[in-house]
Amino acid sequence: MDVSRKKNTVKMMGNLEVKEQIKAKDLLVEGKLIVNGKNLASEKEPVNHFYIGNPELDGCWKLENVNNELLFSQKVAGEWVEKQMMS
User: Fold this and answer.
1) What is the SS3 assignment for 3?
2) What range does the domain containing 87 cover?
3) Cβ–Cβ under 8 Å, residues 74 and 61
């Protein structure tokens, strides 16, 4: 893995494997962000949401950017139910 640093930026070429968790502030992804085999961000398809749990099952949480506000939803009886909006 090629890692270079410039000011508050870390640029990596190659793969980064995280065993536990990673914390990031102001994360900018150029290219792909792949988590558990799923592409969460790419140049062609920006993602404005992510799931905690399996989105096919009840109880899963979805965090979503809606007009620059953070929407928390939970899957209940097969449908997404809005729980809270934060601005």
Assistant:
1) strand
2) 48-87
3) yes
Residue with tokens 């099952």: 57
**72: buried, middle or exposed (CB in 10 Å: 19+, 13-18, 0-12)?**
middle
- Asked, for residue 72, whether it belongs to a domain, the answer is yes
Q: Convert the pLDDT of each residue in 5-16 to its tens digit.
A: 556 666 666 666
Domain count, the chain: 1
Q: What is the pTM of this model?
A: 0.49
Classify residue 73 as exposed, middle or buried by CB count within 10 Å of its CB (0-12, 13-18, 19+): buried
| Burial classification of residue 47, based on how many CB atoms lie within 10 Å of its CB (0-12 exposed, 13-18 middle, 19 or more buried) | middle
Q: Does a structural domain hold residue 40?
A: no
Query: Nearest Cα to 60, choosing from 40, 81, 39?
Result: 81
CA–CA dist 48, 81 (Å, integer): 17
